[in-house]
């Protein structure tokens, strides 16, 4: 019995010892696992090194005369913890933050409450759009608020007390358009792209979109090194600095001075003739450099409203329309090129109604028994142009239009370049369709296509590709140019182009373009007044246009286009009453700014634009009527001064005193005086 008891006791001791041994092994395993985890895991202790990031910027867009039209700046957000503000000093915090940030107090107080109206204890974002200047001021305010004991410590769940203050954190990059609506919609606008922590601008239209991959920021920079006791980076041989790489800057061919003058002029013209919109383009005929591309429908890319939606689209390349009679010189150029006619070939035009088959008839505004090819253009004869188109086959006619760049992209450096449309070869083989297309109906073209096509008549038959950007530039000053998607096109032979050139001169001398005459300059062009189609029918609304050229004896050669959309004043829908006077005023501006130098000097003879009293006038200083009659020849060289600031251009001082009108001729004014006149 005693032996059984002893054996049982021994067995129990063994079991207890085994259990204790297993427990010891488990404890030892847990200890070793804890040590291994501690060794292998990141330890949350202050690092011996620190890194300062320098985020890269989107490139700027700069005018030919050095003005920044679009640029980027950093944005910051202000964050505060609701529970960290002493309730007795909350009113003081809101008051000071409102003063420093410019945000109304009532808007700040709203951010302290959630949708249910309860006070937020956690993080509160007071603003996400603070600029760099305000951010510096708010950082200074944060320090002052700590000194005033506005913030109180908060006990966390682990028992540690933490003092939160006002934090100003970099959160993105915003786009600035410091000159407002200048050069819109060509300049375009941007949207926001965010990765959740940082927001950058992204181009949506115009140049901002067309050059997105070139001007967008490339690579962020940083500075890394050992830190001192207060967390500042120590600059020594072991520190690492990586330079940021910003996007390329766009340098335009467009001078701000010329662009703004044209914009102000077409604003006045639009009110004068009650038009929906006016477009003007000025391009060097030999190089394709666009010196101005202006619309009367503009917007501020920084503050786009619902009313601006219709203006966001650049109609220069995104508004196909039936052009009308401006197509006649192109039709005749093709026939001249094929040697089917000469400028002196005569056609019978004495028909009240001319049958172009299929039950369709055309007529002319003026009756002539017969007209030469030159006079068919001068008097804009539909009957004569129809007969000339029949001397070409449908294939020759269509291929000829394609050589002028119609029904295809122009290659201009904008975000969207619509091709327009031509009738099919099957239809153009029919005389009726060929006749309609010969004077600009039944086909869709864009403003830029016609500007490119007409450059051929001032450039030995070569239609040049328009381009807005002169070059791209990096931070080191290196220049880059991009080849156009569509190159220059030899539309017709040099002989045919020069024959049309001379015919267009006659249009201005004694035809529908007489109001475009400018003594001392070689001016040619063609008018077009075309019905607008709605719901498949032509209505009593019109596109009025004038495309042509202006040259001087010093080698300056410009192709110029003016398109008026729906002029509603009586008889102003005629191109001779709207587009031609607009073209003429463009010549005034080019001469006044020395882009054209007429033989005999400055001579402004175009009539003043009359605006209805109810329409608020746009202020622009022009020579007085007396000065126009005197026709003074200016020989004094303009005074060269430093470029005026943007503040001087736009007169941003509050309520400036009215100044007497400066009646000095434009060529005698200094650079500063010219710019004060513009704005």
From TrEMBL:
Compartment(s): Membrane
Gene3D superfamilies: 3.30.450.330, DD-peptidase/beta-lactamase superfamily, Penicillin-binding protein 2a (Domain 2)
Transmembrane portions of the chain: 17-36
One Pfam family named in its UniProt record: Transpeptidase
Taxonomic superkingdom: Bacteria
Signal sequence segment: none
Keywords carried by this UniProt record: Carboxypeptidase, Hydrolase, Membrane, Protease, Transmembrane, Transmembrane helix
Domain Penicillin-binding protein transpeptidase intervals: 280-587
Biased composition (Basic and acidic residues): 645-658, 665-679
SUPFAM superfamilies: beta-lactamase/transpeptidase-like, Penicillin binding protein dimerisation domain
Region (Disordered): 645-679
Record flagged with keyword DNA damage: no
Keyword Membrane set for record: yes
Domain Penicillin-binding protein dimerisation: 58-235
The protein's name in its UniProt record: Penicillin-binding transpeptidase domain-containing protein
């Amino acid at each position: 019995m005693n032996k059984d008891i002893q054996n049982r006791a021994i067995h129990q001791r063994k079991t207890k010892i085994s259990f204790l041994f297993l427990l010891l092994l488990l404890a030892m395993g847990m200890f070793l696992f804890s040590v291994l985890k501690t060794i292998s895991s990141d330890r949350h202790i202050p690092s011996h090194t620190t890194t300062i990031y320098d985020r890269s910027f989107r490139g700027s867009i700069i005018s030919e005369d050095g003005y920044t039209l679009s640029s980027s700046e950093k944005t910051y957000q202000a964050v505060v913890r609701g529970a960290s503000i002493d309730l007795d000093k909350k009113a003081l915090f809101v008051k000071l933050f409102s003063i420093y940030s410019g945000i109304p107090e009532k808007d700040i107080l709203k951010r302290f409450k959630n949708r249910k109206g309860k006070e937020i204890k956690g993080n509160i974002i007071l603003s996400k759009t603070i600029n760099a200047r305000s951010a510096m001021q708010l950082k200074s305010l944060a320090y002052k608020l700590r000194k005033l004991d506005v913030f109180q410590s908060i006990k966390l769940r682990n028992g540690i007390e933490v003092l939160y203050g006002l934090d100003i954190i970099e959160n993105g990059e915003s786009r600035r358009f410091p000159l407002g609506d200048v050069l819109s919609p060509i300049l375009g606008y941007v949207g926001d792209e965010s990765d959740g922590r940082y927001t950058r601008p992204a181009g949506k239209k115009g140049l901002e979109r067309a050059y997105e991959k070139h001007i967008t920021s490339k690579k962020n920079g940083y500075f890394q090194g050992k830190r001192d006791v207060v967390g500042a980076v120590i600059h020594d041989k072991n520190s690492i600095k990586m330079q940021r790489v910003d996007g390329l800057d766009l340098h335009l061919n467009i001078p701000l001075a010329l662009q703004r003058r044209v914009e102000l002029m077409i604003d006045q013209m639009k009110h004068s003739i009650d038009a929906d919109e006016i477009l003007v383009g000025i391009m060097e005929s030999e190089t394709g450099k666009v010196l101005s591309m202006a619309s009367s429908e503009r917007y501020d890319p920084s503050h786009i409203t619902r009313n601006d939606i219709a203006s966001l689209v650049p109609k220069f390349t995104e508004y196909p329309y039936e052009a009308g009679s401006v197509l006649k010189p192109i039709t005749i150029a093709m026939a001249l090129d094929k040697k089917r006619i000469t400028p002196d070939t005569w056609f019978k035009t004495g028909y009240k109604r001319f049958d172009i088959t299929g039950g369709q008839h055309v007529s002319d505004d003026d009756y002539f028994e017969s007209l030469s090819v030159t006079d068919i253009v001068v008097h804009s004869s539909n009957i004569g142009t129809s007969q000339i188109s029949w001397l070409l086959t449908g294939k020759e006619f269509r291929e000829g239009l394609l050589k002028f760049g119609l029904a295809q992209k122009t290659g201009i450096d904008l975000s969207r370049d619509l091709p327009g449309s031509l009738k099919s070869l099957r239809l153009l083989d029919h005389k009726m369709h060929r006749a309609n297309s010969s004077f600009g109906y039944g086909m869709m073209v864009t403003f830029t296509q016609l500007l490119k096509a007409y450059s051929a008549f001032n450039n030995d038959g070569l239609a040049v590709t328009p381009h807005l950007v002169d070059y791209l530039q990096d931070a080191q000053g290196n220049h880059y140019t991009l080849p156009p998607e569509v190159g220059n096109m030899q539309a017709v032979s040099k002989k045919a182009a020069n024959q049309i050139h001379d015919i267009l001169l006659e249009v201005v001398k004694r035809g529908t373009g007489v109001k475009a005459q400018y003594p001392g300059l070689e001016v040619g062009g063609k008018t077009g007044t075309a019905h607008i189609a709605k719901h498949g029918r032509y209505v009593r609304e019109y596109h009025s246009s004038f495309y042509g050229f202006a040259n001087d004896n010093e080698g300056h050669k410009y192709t110029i286009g003016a398109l008026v959309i729906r002029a509603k004043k009586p008889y102003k829908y005629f191109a001779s009453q709207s587009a031609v006077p607009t073209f003429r005023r463009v010549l005034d501006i080019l001469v006044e700014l020395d882009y054209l130098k007429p033989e005999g000097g400055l001579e402004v003879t175009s009539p003043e634009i009359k605006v209805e009293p109810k329409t608020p006038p746009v202020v622009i200083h022009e020579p007085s009527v007396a000065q126009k009659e005197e026709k003074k020849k200016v020989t004094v060289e303009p005074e060269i001064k430093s470029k005026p600031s943007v503040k001087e251009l736009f007169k941003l001082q509050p309520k400036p005193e009215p100044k007497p009108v400066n009646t000095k001729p434009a060529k005698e004014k200094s650079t500063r005086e010219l710019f004060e006149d513009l704005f």
